[in-house]
Here is the input.
Amino acid sequence: MGKAEKTVETVFTLEMPYCERLKIQRTVFQGGDGPRVAVTSGIHGDELEGLYVCHLLAAWLDALIAANPEALQGQVLLYPALNPLGLDTLTRGVPVFDVDLNRSFPGKPGGDLPLRLASAIMSSLADASFVVDIHASNIYLREIPQVRISREFSDTLVPLANGLNLDLIWLHGAATVLETTIAHSLNATGIPCLVVEMGVGMRVTPEYCAQLVNGILHSWRDLGVIAPDLPLPELTHKPLIADDSNVHFLNAQTSGMFVPTTAHWTDVRRGELLGTIISPFDGSILSEVRSPVDGILFTLREYPLVYEGSLMARVMARKGGHP
Amino acid sequence: MIRNLLCMTAPVREGFDIPCHEIGPKAQQPAVALVGGLHGDEINGIFILSRLADFLNNVEAGTYPELRLARGVLIIPAVNVLGVNLRTRTWPFDKTDINRMFPGSTIGETTQRIAYAVMEATKHAEFRIDIHTASTDFEEIPQVRLYGPSDEERHSSRLFGLPAIMERSLSPVFTTTMMYSWKVWPGQSFVLRVGQAGTVQLEHCQRVFRSLVVFLGRTGILEGVEIAVEDEEVCYFDKESAFRVYAEKAGTFVSDRAVGRWVRTGQELGYIYDSFSGNVIEKVVSPVAGLLTGIRRHPLLFERDLIVRVNRKG
Here is the structure.
């Protein structure tokens, strides 16, 4: 087995109009001939949790190849910033093109820039055997650490997600719009890809990131990317299962300012007050937001202003709960 | 008559409405529904539809005694009301694309509620027409766009008399668009693409205004329309007829060509300059003889950006 090494590779590059280049880069940890795995993040320029996860994984791998290079039996590809222009300018989509990169997959080699980016990213992941794509909700909602899985791929993905040290697996019905995401495109070509959602946009939640890092390392050890006898901290989280039958959406009845009265990620009772929508112009409460079921408050609005229809919270009913 | 499709509250402002025009004989459902401004910066369509509403209201008022509306017309000049006022393509609050929220919902996000209200008002119409432009970067010849059309839609698309009809397949990218949702319902659906976003292009607008009047005339919705057909040439282009030129190098693209002109193979269409040194780095020429159906208007090019599209006559 050769010596493990770290390199930075450019996956895609092109000229910008005036004296700059756009580059998508990845960090490659090359060990033995074992499986090749990848972590992708930053596909939305306002989601930062995955960048920190990539940093923590890179630091762990640096230490591993310094102390015990033979223990890296496969290869690890880290893509912290799939949308570098968006990240550098606090723009969710691809700047200039105003397109959501995660609605542009699998892309094509010609055409608009987002499609070419997607195509290059897909080609660069062609020989991966497992990918984790990390998202951080958006700037409006805070999420507990979770994996979202399309039912179409649940047989393959649920066993992988169970070991990822997260708190929730949310099984979605088939939604055709999601066919244009990186995860769907990878899963459709036979490369298992788990979508992780956690935290909130524009922020980093270090404890969630550390929790996920431990889960990813366990999954790599199970796959043979790192040596089976390598000691890792015990897994500390087991996921609950949510699906369309036990997730309840709380959308705003009226516009105003939503002020929560309950902390994120707590058990709530049916009828319990979760927050109020108030008027900034007078002392009135415009609407009370109450839990429809006994369950867990797993999504909570972070950005206070709401329009009619804005999502404020999601509550997952526990087994035996009565909606 | 003006009706509000949806009245919405806002966090710290007064509520706002999405108004529409209902013109002509009262019926349970309109014969034709015309929708513009799903994207707030696509002003050509908003201008065309507001002018069409003015014209048809004048027909109803007896200003043009030779004309008569035989059936009802529904016109929504702009769906994304706040986007128009703030000059943004998307819904300004959460930057979501209203044309990715269909068929909508009464209990979901704000933009889904907007989409639902538009669907309810339009889905039963016999003819449904959604007017768009290209982005602010690109100019499209006024055209009918068909997505996975029926034979009836192929036939009816010629009734507009616009210079180009472009047929495309339905991709998963379109699943949540209004066009896709319309197709579930009986009737015919068309997208018109007109010029570029962010401006009113008077020549294009006048042409499309006339084409809508002609369409209403030929379908019997507006009686008494005299149609001159001498100079009308309609070209039906499938995907294979399109030849695109992409920028080999990044830079500044400058052209004085107009869309809708026939061009020869090798004809000069513009130049790319190095944005720093000012050197000419590429002469852009037509790859085939055909109709110039689209051209780059924003001068700053990334490498491999689309510059022109020429369609060869079938």
